[in-house]
Amino acid sequence: xxxxxxxxxxxxxxxxxxxxxxxxxxxxxxxxxxxxxxxxxxxxxxxxxxxxxxxxxxxxxxxxxxxxxxxxxxxxxxxxxxxxxxxxx
Length: 89
Known about the structure:
With 89 residues, the chain is mainly alpha-helical. The chain has helices at 5-28, 47-50, 54-63, 84-88; strands spanning 40-42, 68-70. It has a domain at 40-88.
């Protein structure tokens, strides 16, 4: 079997493509696996609402299912006038 330049280039390109896609396909995982972990909310995205009634807004955010939040330093500080333990509740 003789190999010519054209078939060599096709074979080498196919091998290179398969090698480069192997890590990408591994990262995708199987379709049944959970892809996302817990996600949170940045309080800056609701900055206009949180200024009115901070405690009530934080309770509503928790009731929506958010377990993780990222605060920002507003007028009342990063814990919005609460102690760190009250803010965590």
